[in-house]
Amino acid sequence: MPNSYPKFDSSTYNHLATFSYRSKAVYLAAMLGIILLLVSLPLVRMSVSAQAPGMLRPLAEKTEVRPLVAGTITKLLVRENQQVQAGDTLLLLQSGAMQSQLALNARQQAEHAAFVQDLAWLVQHMAAPAGGLRTPLYGQQAAQYQTQLQQFRNQLQKSSRDVATSQELFRDKVIARVELEDKTFAHRKRLDEARVLTETQRSQWQAELASHRAALAELRGQQQQLGLERRLYCLRAPVTGTVQQLAGKYVGSYVQSGELLGTLSPDGDLLAECYVSPKDIGFMRVGMPARFQVDAFDYNQWGLVEGRITDVSRDFVLVNNEPVFKVRCQLSRAFLQLDNGYRGTLRKSMTVHARFLLARRTLWQLLFDRADNWLNPTQDGVS
Fold first, then answer.
1. What is the rounded distance in angstroms from the CA atom of residue 304 to the CA atom of residue 337?
2. Taking all residues of the chain, what is their mean pLDDT, rounded to a whole number?
3. Of 360, 186, 375, nearest to 283 (Cα)?
4. pLDDT of residue 357
5. Cβ atoms 81, 244 nearer than 8 A
6. What does each C-alpha distance from 128 to 120, 204, 312 come to in angstroms?
7. Which pLDDT score is estimated for 4?
8. pLDDT in tens, 330-363
């Protein structure tokens, strides 16, 4: 049946009769929500973060175990994955040449020390002690000196008697003054010769004493040097850590100077070394907070570890043929903990994912950045 009132089909009354009040309320609520969303865009702020993979490692670098001298292993005191303390002996090397040099040095020191002792006594007393001297050389020299000195003494006694006799004869006017003066001159000459003999012998012994003392000091210096070199044959742990990657060496094996025998992974506080891509490195700065998700622990149960950037590398390195920058971070703790109190200890070489808080931006700024990315996509090449 045709509509009797066609002019009312497009009227307000017909529209209101067609659409219910419920549809109107939904429409108004949607519009109100859109308006509130638009108003909140410049007001609501969100944290913008960058993510980077990384690994836990000690503060110190791994230390390579390399001997500074060549030799044969006589003792091997460590095994793979063994914990050692700083100063612990790792292995001992043996060298026949070093032992020979030390033995020769000891013999030479003993010889020169005996010389010094004998000469010091002779310079002071000019005669051998009652028990004799330690060395045959200076014992013979001392005996020879005493023999010569005794000869001069005998000659002095004879010349002294000759002078006394000549004086009596001169007083009795039996001999002339010239003859008395000759006897007196001969006596004084014997006295001078005895004094010269003593002074010459003392000077000779003093010179030899100084020479032997200098030689002894040099030998002691060589002994100290040999002692330092001998310590190189005892390979010790420079730091506390774990022995890793031991070479296949056994007792009796010969090692070359500088040969790699293993590595020592040091203990101590852990840090997170993260590999940040070049597009994010510009935001990194020392002191920036970070949070770390440890891959070995489910972060939904164990949570995250807080940290802070302590060092940002100035140049890139290649990791898996990709340029990255190393960023080192200090951790606030070395464990994760469940709600029941059970702790999971963080260990070296555990992999992590770091989240660096770059800035807090409004929803409007984020929406604008996303729209800019859509409108200006990055081009891989030039068409």
1. 10
2. 82
3. 360
4. 81
5. yes
6. 11, 16, 78
7. 52
8. 999 989 989 888 999 998 889 999 998 876 666 6
pLDDT digits (tens, 9 = 90+) for 83-107: 898 889 899 888 777 888 889 999 9
C-alpha 236/C-alpha 255 separation (Å) is 16
How far apart are the C-alpha atoms of 46 and 208, rounded to whole Å?
A: 90
Please answer whether residues 354 and 272 qualify as being in contact, where contact means their C-beta atoms are separated by less than 8 angstroms: yes
Tokens encoding 10:
């497009």
Q: With the C-alpha atoms ordered 29, 32, 34, 36, is the resulting torsion angle positive or negative?
A: negative
According to the 3-state scheme, what is the secondary structure of the chain? CCCCCHHHCCCHHHHHHHCCHHHHHHHHHHHHHHHHHHHHCCCCEEEEEEEEEEEEEECCCCEEECCCCCEEEEEECCCCCCEECCCCEEEEEECHHHHHHHHHHHHHHHHHHHHHHHHHHHHHHCCCCCCCCCCHHHHHHHHHHHHHHHHHHHHHHHHHHHHHHHHHHHHCCCCCHHHHHHHHHHHHHHHHHHHHHHHHHHHHHHHHHHHHHHHHHHHHHHHHHHHHHHHCCEEECCCCEEEECCCCCCCCCEECCCCCCEEEEECCCEEEEEEECHHHHCCCCCCCEEEEEECCCCHHHHCCEEEEEEEECCCCEEECCEEEEEEEEEECCCEEECCCCCEEECCCCCEEEEEEEEEEEEHHHHHHHHHHHHHCCCCCCCC
Give the type of residue at 77.
L
Q: Average pLDDT for residues 218-230, to the nearest whole number?
A: 90
Alpha carbon distance 350, 295 (integer Å): 7
Pairing between β-strand 270-276 and β-strand 71-76 as defined by DSSP bridges: unpaired
According to DSSP, the residues that pair with 72 across neighbouring strands are 94, 254
Tracing tokens 């004869």 back to the chain, one arrives at: 169
Give the tokens for residue 120.
């010091």
Could you tell me which of 243, 203, 193 has the C-alpha nearest to residue 89? 243
**Other CB atoms within 10 Å distance of the CB of residue 35:** 10
Distance CA 209, CA 130 (A): 21
